[in-house]
Amino acid sequence: MTLNYNDTLDEEVKTWNIEDPIKRQEKIQRETIRHHKLKKDLLLDELDTANMDICEVGGGPSPVSNLLPFNDRVVFDPCTNEYKKYFNCPDHLNVKIEDVEFVTKFDLVLATNSLDHVEYPYIAMRKMSELCKPGGYIGIVCAENNAITNPHPCHVHNLTSEMVHYCFDRDFETVWELNYKKDNYRYGWVEYQGKRGQPAFAILFRKCTGYE
Fold this sequence. Notes:
The protein has 8 helices and 8 strands. The protein is an alpha/beta fold. The protein starts with a helix and ends in a 5-residue tail after the last strand.
């Protein structure tokens, strides 16, 4: 049975808001230890982010941008109000990326393991493009066809690197990319063809349009 979007958000919250504090801490540690890998996989450790304004899409209670120095940060996540029952979410706004109306533009826009959770991926990616400054960067990590390789009520969409390039290649250059087809790039713990880690992609784009 296909869940409606609000039900998928409830399922996502359940994966984090675990009543048992020991199990909740294990979940946080298991997820956040991977963030150091994501930082390298997106080449973010080569970016001087200290003076950057950053936004993260669907960052959850432990965003990858926690590892980065920044001038200012916003985390857009429609589950924020629920996460705040258990976690500090100091820079979070309880909003879907598709509904964001922001005058502020950002130097770096991140979405790691979240684009397959949004309601409308193509609208979400268009909004990310709008939020990115000319010359700014967008970093995306996602499992390929996650709803197939890791079935879960919150894995709604099957994204591929080709779909992401379709959305961004007109206005963005590809600065860096890892994907399963070329690099055997995997992410996560799920078994796929006899090995842990699903086919995935990590892409860093730079915006080339919008200059006055």
